[in-house]
Design goal:
- The chain contains no helices and 10 strands.
- With 126 residues, the chain is mainly beta.
- The protein has strands spanning 25-33, 35-43, 52-53, 58-65, 68-72, 78-82, 87-90, 96-99, 106-114, 120-121.
- 0% of the residues lie in helices and 45% in strands.
- It has a single domain, classed as Jelly Rolls.
Length: 126
């Protein structure tokens, strides 16, 4: 506990794209330190990202704008679709990819708790 610690404001202009990116998505990182990672993510209209996972991180995704389809599971056979106001939980190591089925940019907020690499690109699900 640090009762005298100062809060920090991270403005939109201070977010960094200096992080592992996945095709079709632009991750703008606001917070990246041991145990927590937070970013604003834009998805291109009609895009399908590359397959990836988030290593030992628990990931919570909140959709602000647009729709995002998540494919996952053996052979990528499972899918869910989320819209504005929805949360999606991605467990550690879950191989998945996102796609934006709409003609407009998607906007999501991603919060991760864990350690290690926050994003690992892979060839596809087993």
């Amino acid at each position: 506990m640090t009762p005298d610690a100062d809060l920090r404001l991270i403005r939109a202009t201070e977010r960094s794209t200096d992080t592992q990116q996945t095709s079709g998505m632009t991750r703008e990182v606001a917070i990246s330190k041991e145990g927590i990672w937070a970013a604003f993510v834009r998805t291109e209209p009609g895009m399908a990202s590359g397959w990836h996972h988030h290593a030992a991180y628990e990931t919570a995704i909140f959709l602000l704008k647009g729709r995002v389809r998540f494919e996952f599971g053996r052979g990528g056979a499972n899918a869910i679709e989320a819209g504005p106001g929805d949360f999606v939980h991605v467990p550690p190591g879950a191989v998945h990819r996102e796609s934006d089925p709409e003609a407009t940019e998607g906007q999501i907020v991603v919060i991760r708790a864990g350690t290690g690499a926050p994003n690992v690109n892979v060839d596809g699900p087993a």
